[in-house]
Amino acid sequence: MNIANWLHDTQRRTPQRPALFDGPVQVADYATFAAHVRQRAAHLVDQHGLVPGDAVALLMKNSCDYLELLYAIWWMGAVAVPINAKLHPSEAAWIADNAEARLIFTDGGGVFSSRDLPPRCKELDGHQRPPDRGWPTLEHPVPRQDQDLAWLFYTSGTTGRSKGVMLSHGNLVAMSLCYATDVDAVSADDAAVYAAPMSHGAGLYNFIHVRCGARHVVPASHGFDAAELFGLAEQVGQVSLFAAPTMVKRMVEQARRQDYHGAGIKTIVYGGGPMYLADLRDAVDTFGPRLVQIYGQGESPMTISVLPRAVIAERQRPDWDSLAASVGHAQACVEIRILDTEHQPLPTGERGEIAVRGATVMQGYWRNPQATRQTLVDGWLLTGDIGYLDAAGYLTLTDRSKDVIISGGSNVYPREVEEVLAQHPDVFEVCVVGEPDAQWGESVVAFVVARSGHPLDEDELTAWFLARMASFKKPKKYVWRSELPKNSYGKILKTDLRQWLKAASIAAL
Q1: 343 burial class (0-12, 13-18, 19+ CB within 10 angstroms)?
Q2: Which of 37, 116, 308, 380 could potentially form a cystine with 355 if both were Cys, beta carbons 3.0 to 4.6 Å apart?
C-alpha cells in the first residue's frame, strides 16, 4: 500500500479539518493540503519526467512545504531522500549522488552550483509551488506494494560514509501503527509540532497524525526554541512532539526560568540518545505525566522499544529507578533478543548485542550488500547497541558496542559513568569517551559542562563519584567545556570528542 493513501483517505473523510500551520496560523485544511500535493506530484511527472521508483532528495529546514513535497513524492510513486539541512552542500551532493536522485529540493534554490551536483540531478526551490495542471491520472496515489521503497534515510556516518537505510511503505505503516498502539493514542484534536528535524525521527511521526486527521504545526523559527515552543503549545493546544534528551533538558531549564509547567503540551516523546535519571526526574517534576521514551534506529525507525508515560510518571514505584533507566519493553510489531558474539541468545540479565526482528526492520542498505549482510543476519537486525533484558522484558541500554571502554582488561560502559556524574548538582551536561592509554589500554575521559560555567574541583568530583561507583570506572581526566558538540537533532557527537583528544595528544608531543 502507498503510504500516501492515508492523506487521500483523510482529505475525503474530513476535507475541512485543519491540517497545516505556520506557527499558530492555519495555512491549509486537509482538502487544500491534498490539492497542493496533487499539484506538486503532477509537476514531478509532467515537467521532470519522474516515474515510480525514482529518488527525490530534500535539503530543507522544517516547513509546511516540506510535508507537501514528501507526500507529492509518494503520491506519484517516487522515493523520498530527506537530508539533514545542516550538512555541507558537498556532503548533501554525495548523498544525492549515492541515492541516484533525479531532483533535490532546497530552501530557495541556489544552494549548489551546476558542477556540485551529479549531472542527472537538478536543484529546485522547495517553496515554489507549481500551477495546477489538472492531471486526472493523479487524483489517486500511484499503487505501491508494501515492500516498495518509500524513504531512503542516510545514517549519520560517524564511522565513515553514511549508508542509505531502505525503508518501505510497509515499514512506515508498521512504525506508524506501533506509535498509536504503544507510544501515544492520536486523535483529530491533536497537533504534531515539528521542532526537531523533519528529515529524521520527527518527520516520521507525521504519518499517524495524517491518518487521524490531526494538525501539523511548524514553529515560525523552523526549528527548536523552548520559549517559542511553550508559547505555541499554549496557543495551539494538545501538542505532541519528538525531542532528543538534550532538547528536553533545555526545555526544563527554560520552563523553570519562566515558571511554565506544560500547559498545552499533551506528549513529549524522547529518544535518540541517553536520558539520564537526574534529567528525567527534573523533566517529570517540571512537566508531569507528559513524557514517553522510545528507542529505535534508522534501521528500525522509532520502533524497537517504548517506556510508557504511566511508568515514567509513577515515581512512587519501588523499582522506578531501574525501570526509568531502561528504554522500556518491545513495541508491538517487533521481537528483541540479546545475542553473544556468536549471535546466540543470552539469558535474562546478561549483556550482549541487541537484535531486533519485525515489520519495521529495513529492507537493507542502498547499494551496499556487504553492509546489509553484516547487519541483517538470519532475519535479525544487529543494532550494534549493548544491553540486557530483565525478567519483565524491559530493555536497558548500556552503550554502543563501539563506545565500550576496555580499561585494564575490564569493560567500562560510558553510560554508567555519565549517569553518576549527571546526578552531581553542579554538572549540567556530561559525555564520557575512551582515550588510548599505554598502561591501561584505554582510560576514561569525561567531558563536562558545569552549571556555573567554571571548572569544578576535580578531587571533590572524583570523591563524589567514588562514593557511588567502582574505582576502576572513574574518569582519569576531566575536560571542561562551555558546550558539547551536537548534531542537528541534539545527539552529542562522541566522534568529535575523540578526535579532539587525538589532536590534543599529538599537539602535546
Answers
A1: middle
A2: 380
